[in-house]
Protein backbone atom coordinates (compact mmCIF):
# COMPACT_ATOMS: atom_id res chain seq x y z
CA UNK A 1 0.00 0.00 0.00
CA UNK A 2 1.41 3.43 -0.98
CA UNK A 3 1.82 6.29 1.45
CA UNK A 4 -0.83 9.02 1.55
CA UNK A 5 0.22 12.13 -0.40
CA UNK A 6 -0.63 15.34 1.47
CA UNK A 7 1.08 17.90 -0.76
CA UNK A 8 4.14 18.62 -2.81
CA UNK A 9 7.27 20.77 -2.68
CA UNK A 10 9.18 22.14 -5.64
CA UNK A 11 12.85 22.91 -6.13
CA UNK A 12 15.14 23.96 -8.98
CA UNK A 13 17.37 21.30 -10.58
CA UNK A 14 19.39 21.86 -13.76
CA UNK A 15 17.30 24.89 -14.67
CA UNK A 16 13.99 23.09 -14.23
CA UNK A 17 11.45 22.96 -11.42
CA UNK A 18 11.04 19.49 -9.96
CA UNK A 19 8.10 18.57 -7.73
CA UNK A 20 8.41 16.05 -4.93
CA UNK A 21 5.37 14.62 -3.15
CA UNK A 22 4.98 15.26 0.58
CA UNK A 23 3.69 12.25 2.48
CA UNK A 24 1.85 11.99 5.78
CA UNK A 25 4.65 12.02 8.39
CA UNK A 26 2.66 9.78 10.70
CA UNK A 27 3.41 6.99 8.25
CA UNK A 28 7.21 7.52 8.42
CA UNK A 29 9.00 5.16 10.75
CA UNK A 30 11.20 6.38 13.67
CA UNK A 31 14.03 3.90 13.25
CA UNK A 32 15.71 5.30 16.38
CA UNK A 33 12.87 3.87 18.46
CA UNK A 34 13.90 0.30 17.69
CA UNK A 35 15.33 -1.78 20.50
CA UNK A 36 19.08 -2.42 20.70
CA UNK A 37 20.22 -5.78 22.06
CA UNK A 38 23.94 -5.18 22.60
CA UNK A 39 23.38 -3.95 26.19
CA UNK A 40 25.80 -1.01 25.93
CA UNK A 41 24.63 2.28 27.40
CA UNK A 42 26.06 5.43 25.78
CA UNK A 43 27.20 8.21 28.11
CA UNK A 44 26.75 11.05 25.60
CA UNK A 45 25.21 11.24 22.14
CA UNK A 46 24.20 14.44 20.42
CA UNK A 47 25.41 17.27 18.18
CA UNK A 48 28.78 19.03 18.27
CA UNK A 49 30.48 22.10 16.80
CA UNK A 50 27.17 23.90 16.35
CA UNK A 51 27.63 27.66 15.83
CA UNK A 52 24.85 29.42 17.70
CA UNK A 53 24.06 32.96 18.95
CA UNK A 54 23.80 33.20 22.73
CA UNK A 55 23.34 35.83 25.41
CA UNK A 56 25.70 35.88 28.39
CA UNK A 57 25.56 37.96 31.55
CA UNK A 58 27.68 41.12 31.49
CA UNK A 59 28.41 42.88 34.78
CA UNK A 60 28.54 46.36 33.24
CA UNK A 61 25.99 46.05 30.40
CA UNK A 62 23.75 43.36 31.96
CA UNK A 63 23.83 41.22 28.81
CA UNK A 64 26.25 40.59 25.93
CA UNK A 65 25.42 38.89 22.65
CA UNK A 66 28.05 36.59 21.19
CA UNK A 67 28.47 33.54 18.96
CA UNK A 68 29.17 30.22 20.65
CA UNK A 69 30.31 26.77 19.61
CA UNK A 70 27.89 24.35 21.25
CA UNK A 71 28.09 20.64 22.02
CA UNK A 72 24.86 19.23 23.45
CA UNK A 73 24.06 15.63 24.30
CA UNK A 74 22.01 13.18 26.32
CA UNK A 75 22.69 9.78 27.83
CA UNK A 76 21.26 6.86 25.86
CA UNK A 77 19.97 3.74 27.65
CA UNK A 78 21.43 0.36 26.72
CA UNK A 79 18.25 -0.79 25.00
CA UNK A 80 17.65 2.32 22.84
CA UNK A 81 18.75 2.19 19.20
CA UNK A 82 19.39 5.90 18.81
CA UNK A 83 18.40 9.45 19.69
CA UNK A 84 16.55 12.12 17.70
CA UNK A 85 19.19 14.61 16.55
CA UNK A 86 16.71 17.23 15.34
CA UNK A 87 15.30 17.63 18.84
CA UNK A 88 18.58 19.06 20.13
CA UNK A 89 18.20 21.99 17.75
CA UNK A 90 14.52 22.28 18.63
CA UNK A 91 15.39 22.61 22.31
CA UNK A 92 17.93 25.37 21.59
CA UNK A 93 15.48 27.18 19.32
CA UNK A 94 12.83 27.10 22.01
CA UNK A 95 15.21 28.95 24.33
CA UNK A 96 16.86 31.17 21.73
CA UNK A 97 18.34 34.27 23.34
CA UNK A 98 18.10 32.71 26.82
CA UNK A 99 21.23 30.56 26.96
CA UNK A 100 22.71 31.89 30.21
CA UNK A 101 23.83 30.47 33.54
CA UNK A 102 20.30 31.04 34.81
CA UNK A 103 18.54 29.17 32.01
CA UNK A 104 20.86 26.26 31.20
CA UNK A 105 19.12 23.90 33.69
CA UNK A 106 15.75 24.63 32.06
CA UNK A 107 17.17 23.98 28.58
CA UNK A 108 18.61 20.62 29.68
CA UNK A 109 15.43 19.59 31.54
CA UNK A 110 13.46 20.40 28.38
CA UNK A 111 15.87 18.26 26.38
CA UNK A 112 15.42 15.36 28.80
CA UNK A 113 11.66 15.59 28.38
CA UNK A 114 11.82 15.77 24.57
CA UNK A 115 14.14 12.77 24.32
CA UNK A 116 12.85 10.82 27.31
CA UNK A 117 16.41 10.86 28.72
CA UNK A 118 17.66 10.89 32.31
CA UNK A 119 20.76 13.00 31.74
CA UNK A 120 21.66 15.90 29.45
CA UNK A 121 24.93 17.76 28.99
CA UNK A 122 25.96 20.98 27.26
CA UNK A 123 29.36 22.54 26.51
CA UNK A 124 29.47 26.12 25.28
CA UNK A 125 32.61 27.94 24.13
CA UNK A 126 32.41 31.62 23.26
CA UNK A 127 34.45 34.84 23.01
CA UNK A 128 33.64 37.42 25.67
CA UNK A 129 34.56 41.05 25.00
CA UNK A 130 35.54 43.74 27.47
CA UNK A 131 36.66 47.29 26.84
CA UNK A 132 40.02 47.76 28.58
CA UNK A 133 41.82 51.07 28.95
CA UNK A 134 45.60 51.26 28.64
CA UNK A 135 47.22 51.74 32.08
CA UNK A 136 48.80 55.18 31.46
CA UNK A 137 47.42 56.69 28.27
CA UNK A 138 43.91 55.43 29.02
CA UNK A 139 43.12 54.71 25.36
CA UNK A 140 40.31 52.10 25.23
CA UNK A 141 40.16 48.96 23.09
CA UNK A 142 38.24 45.71 23.11
CA UNK A 143 39.88 42.58 24.54
CA UNK A 144 38.47 39.14 23.82
CA UNK A 145 38.59 36.34 26.39
CA UNK A 146 37.81 32.73 25.52
CA UNK A 147 35.17 31.38 27.89
CA UNK A 148 33.65 27.92 28.30
CA UNK A 149 30.79 26.78 30.41
CA UNK A 150 29.37 23.34 30.91
CA UNK A 151 26.03 22.30 32.31
CA UNK A 152 24.65 18.93 33.31
CA UNK A 153 21.30 17.65 34.51
CA UNK A 154 20.99 14.07 35.75
CA UNK A 155 17.65 13.37 37.37
CA UNK A 156 17.29 15.95 40.13
CA UNK A 157 21.02 16.79 40.14
CA UNK A 158 22.33 19.89 38.39
CA UNK A 159 25.87 21.10 37.75
CA UNK A 160 27.32 24.23 36.16
CA UNK A 161 30.98 25.15 35.61
CA UNK A 162 32.06 28.58 34.37
CA UNK A 163 35.51 29.19 32.96
CA UNK A 164 37.69 31.87 31.36
CA UNK A 165 41.12 31.80 29.72
CA UNK A 166 43.02 35.00 30.50
CA UNK A 167 46.22 36.09 28.70
CA UNK A 168 48.85 37.51 31.07
CA UNK A 169 52.51 38.47 31.17
CA UNK A 170 54.93 36.58 33.39
CA UNK A 171 58.57 37.41 34.13
CA UNK A 172 60.91 34.70 35.41
CA UNK A 173 62.19 35.29 38.99
CA UNK A 174 65.22 33.06 38.41
CA UNK A 175 66.21 34.88 35.23
CA UNK A 176 65.92 38.24 37.01
CA UNK A 177 68.08 37.02 39.90
CA UNK A 178 70.95 35.54 37.89
CA UNK A 179 71.15 38.10 35.06
CA UNK A 180 73.28 41.25 35.14
CA UNK A 181 70.37 43.07 33.52
CA UNK A 182 66.97 42.17 32.12
CA UNK A 183 65.00 38.97 32.53
CA UNK A 184 63.15 36.67 30.15
CA UNK A 185 59.40 37.14 30.06
CA UNK A 186 56.54 35.81 27.98
CA UNK A 187 52.84 35.73 27.42
CA UNK A 188 51.06 33.05 29.36
CA UNK A 189 47.50 32.02 30.06
CA UNK A 190 45.57 31.46 33.25
CA UNK A 191 42.69 29.06 32.65
CA UNK A 192 40.20 29.26 35.54
CA UNK A 193 37.12 27.07 36.02
CA UNK A 194 34.72 27.50 38.94
CA UNK A 195 31.61 26.15 40.57
CA UNK A 196 29.80 28.55 42.88
CA UNK A 197 26.72 29.00 45.07
CA UNK A 198 26.10 32.49 43.69
CA UNK A 199 26.93 34.27 40.44
CA UNK A 200 30.63 34.85 39.92
CA UNK A 201 31.18 37.32 37.09
CA UNK A 202 33.57 36.60 34.24
CA UNK A 203 35.06 40.04 34.90
CA UNK A 204 35.88 39.02 38.46
CA UNK A 205 37.79 35.95 37.30
CA UNK A 206 39.71 38.09 34.81
CA UNK A 207 40.66 40.50 37.61
CA UNK A 208 41.85 37.59 39.76
CA UNK A 209 43.99 36.22 36.94
CA UNK A 210 45.61 39.54 36.08
CA UNK A 211 46.38 40.31 39.73
CA UNK A 212 48.08 36.92 40.05
CA UNK A 213 50.56 37.41 37.18
CA UNK A 214 53.44 39.80 36.54
CA UNK A 215 51.32 42.16 34.44
CA UNK A 216 48.11 42.21 32.39
CA UNK A 217 47.86 42.03 28.60
CA UNK A 218 46.12 44.76 26.58
CA UNK A 219 44.90 45.08 22.99
CA UNK A 220 46.15 48.64 22.45
CA UNK A 221 49.21 50.27 24.03
CA UNK A 222 51.17 53.48 23.43
CA UNK A 223 54.84 53.98 24.29
CA UNK A 224 54.17 55.21 27.81
CA UNK A 225 51.96 52.17 28.42
CA UNK A 226 54.63 49.76 27.17
CA UNK A 227 57.17 51.37 29.49
CA UNK A 228 54.80 51.07 32.46
CA UNK A 229 53.97 47.39 31.79
CA UNK A 230 57.61 46.45 31.19
CA UNK A 231 58.58 47.85 34.59
CA UNK A 232 55.46 46.42 36.28
CA UNK A 233 56.35 42.93 35.08
CA UNK A 234 59.99 43.38 36.18
CA UNK A 235 58.83 44.38 39.67
CA UNK A 236 56.47 41.37 39.93
CA UNK A 237 58.34 38.24 38.79
CA UNK A 238 56.36 34.97 39.05
CA UNK A 239 56.75 31.32 38.13
CA UNK A 240 53.75 29.32 36.87
CA UNK A 241 53.70 27.83 40.39
CA UNK A 242 53.28 31.32 41.85
CA UNK A 243 50.45 32.20 39.49
CA UNK A 244 48.30 29.16 40.27
CA UNK A 245 48.89 29.61 44.00
CA UNK A 246 48.01 33.30 43.80
CA UNK A 247 44.76 32.50 42.03
CA UNK A 248 44.01 29.62 44.41
CA UNK A 249 44.35 31.79 47.51
CA UNK A 250 42.09 34.48 46.08
CA UNK A 251 39.39 32.02 45.01
CA UNK A 252 39.62 30.04 48.23
CA UNK A 253 38.89 33.23 50.17
CA UNK A 254 35.78 33.94 48.06
CA UNK A 255 32.95 32.23 49.98
CA UNK A 256 30.80 32.01 46.83
CA UNK A 257 33.25 29.58 45.20
CA UNK A 258 32.72 25.91 46.04
CA UNK A 259 35.20 24.36 43.60
CA UNK A 260 37.84 25.52 41.18
CA UNK A 261 40.53 24.30 38.84
CA UNK A 262 43.23 26.72 37.75
CA UNK A 263 45.95 26.05 35.20
CA UNK A 264 48.80 28.39 34.31
CA UNK A 265 50.73 27.86 31.10
CA UNK A 266 53.64 29.96 29.84
CA UNK A 267 54.66 30.06 26.19
CA UNK A 268 58.31 30.17 27.11
CA UNK A 269 60.38 32.78 25.27
CA UNK A 270 63.80 31.07 25.60
CA UNK A 271 62.78 27.38 25.77
CA UNK A 272 61.47 25.04 23.12
CA UNK A 273 58.58 24.00 25.34
CA UNK A 274 55.84 25.44 27.51
CA UNK A 275 55.73 25.40 31.31
CA UNK A 276 52.54 24.75 33.27
CA UNK A 277 51.12 24.23 36.76
CA UNK A 278 47.63 23.21 37.88
CA UNK A 279 45.64 23.21 41.10
CA UNK A 280 42.18 21.77 41.85
CA UNK A 281 40.32 22.60 45.07
CA UNK A 282 36.97 21.74 46.67
CA UNK A 283 35.47 23.60 49.58
CA UNK A 284 34.64 21.49 52.62
CA UNK A 285 30.95 21.02 53.39
CA UNK A 286 31.67 22.43 56.83
CA UNK A 287 31.52 26.21 56.83
CA UNK A 288 34.74 27.92 57.72
CA UNK A 289 36.87 24.86 56.94
CA UNK A 290 39.11 25.08 53.90
CA UNK A 291 39.03 22.17 51.47
CA UNK A 292 42.08 20.32 50.24
CA UNK A 293 44.25 21.19 47.27
CA UNK A 294 44.99 18.44 44.78
Can you give the helix content as a percent range?
Answer: 10-25%
* Overall pLDDT score: 87
The name of the CATH architecture of one domain is Roll
Specify the number of helices.
6
Question: Biggest sheet: strands, sense, closure?
Answer: 9 strands, antiparallel
Q: Give the CA-based shape.
A: elongated
Total DSSP E strands? 11
> How would you spell out the order of helices and strands?
EEEEHHEEEHEHEHHEE
Do you know the CATH topology of one domain?
A: Urate Oxidase
Rg over CA atoms, rounded to whole Å, is 25 Å
Q: How far apart lie the N and C ends? A: 66 Å
Class of secondary structure makeup: alpha+beta
CATH top level of one domain is Alpha Beta
Strand content: 35-45%
What would a concise description of this structure say?
The protein is an alpha+beta fold. 21% of the residues lie in helices and 43% in strands.
Molecular structure report:
With about 290 residues, the chain is α+β, with helices and mostly antiparallel strands. It has a domain at about 135-145 and about 155-294: Urate Oxidase (Roll). It is about 20% helix and about 45% strand. The chain has six helices and eleven strands. The protein has helices spanning about 85-95, 105-115, 175-180, 200-210, 225-235, 240-250; strands spanning about 5-15, 15-25, 40-60, 60-75, 120-135, 140-155, 155-170, 185-195, 215, 255-265, 275-280. Strands 3, 4, 5, 6, 7, 8, 9, 10 and 11 form a nine-stranded antiparallel β-sheet that branches. A two-stranded antiparallel ribbon has the order 1-2. β6 (about 140-155) and β7 (about 155-170) form a beta hairpin. α1 (about 85-95) runs antiparallel to α2. The longest helix is centred in the C-terminal third of the chain and has 13 residues, at about 225-235. The protein is elongated. The termini are far apart.
